[in-house]
Amino acid sequence: MDQGLCCSALQAQRVRHHVTIEFFRRVTQRDAILFPHFMPYPSRYAAILIAATVVFGTTSCADNTAPGDDPATLAGTYVLETSSGRYAPISGSIVLTQAARAERRVRYDRGSAGISDYVTIGTFALAGDGTIVFSLNESCGSATCVWNVRASRAADSFTLEYPDPADGPTIRETYSRQ
């Protein structure tokens, strides 16, 4: 997943802990050399440590997403409006949930082989550049592969773009909120 978004609570806690400990270590080393008479008072360092923890604890990973960038605001059903490319689907939909889960259902015209349905499920996240990043699970024979694909976003729609599997023109799928 793209780490351009706000870090998880556990990552934030680890960063705060590391920064606080590193700060305390450097201040202690510096002051032991510059102010040897100050060292007998470790309670002063405890006050510095507590203050640093409060400052870093409240600002290191505040919610930096704008109201429109919350993944829950994207929740809904999106229907395939247009598609282009040699192997583009003929119809389909993508369902996004408030829990950042995604399900893509598309139909392909296989010519004489008929119409085939294709379903992938996975997750989505908002990247720092405003795009939607999908991680969808696909069947790869006896294994499961993850298809990571980005979508550019507009008000109530998004467009997936990905390469043609046989070096043809780029495949584009535009979905609009239903």
Please characterize this protein's 3D structure:
- The chain has 178 residues and is of the alpha+beta class.
- It has two domains: 56 residues, no CATH class; 110 residues, Lipocalin (Beta Barrel), CATH 2.40.128.
- Helices cover 25% and strands 39% of the residues.
- Strands 1-2-3-4-5-6-7-8 form an eight-stranded antiparallel β-barrel.
- Helix 1 runs antiparallel to helix 2.
- It is globular and about 45 Å long.
Number of separate domains:
2
The fold-level CATH name of the largest domain is: Lipocalin
Average the pLDDT over all residues and give the rounded result. Answer: 77
Give me the oligomer status: single chain
Query: Would you count the extended β strands for me?
Result: 8
Secondary-structure-derived class: alpha+beta
Order of helices and strands: HHEEEEEEEE
- Give the class-level CATH name of the largest domain: Mainly Beta
What is the end-to-end distance? 27 Å
CATH architecture classification of the largest domain: Beta Barrel
What is the overall shape? Answer: globular
In terms of DSSP E residues, the strand content is 35-45%
Query: Which runs of at least 5 residues are low in confidence (pLDDT < 50)?
Result: 1-8, 58-67
Give the name of the CATH superfamily of the largest domain: Calycin beta-barrel core domain
* Strand order of the biggest β-sheet: 1-2-3-4-5-6-7-8
Q: How many helices does DSSP assign? A: 2
The main pleated sheet reads as:
8 strands, antiparallel, barrel
The share of residues in helices is 10-25%
Radius of gyration computed on alpha carbons: 25 Å
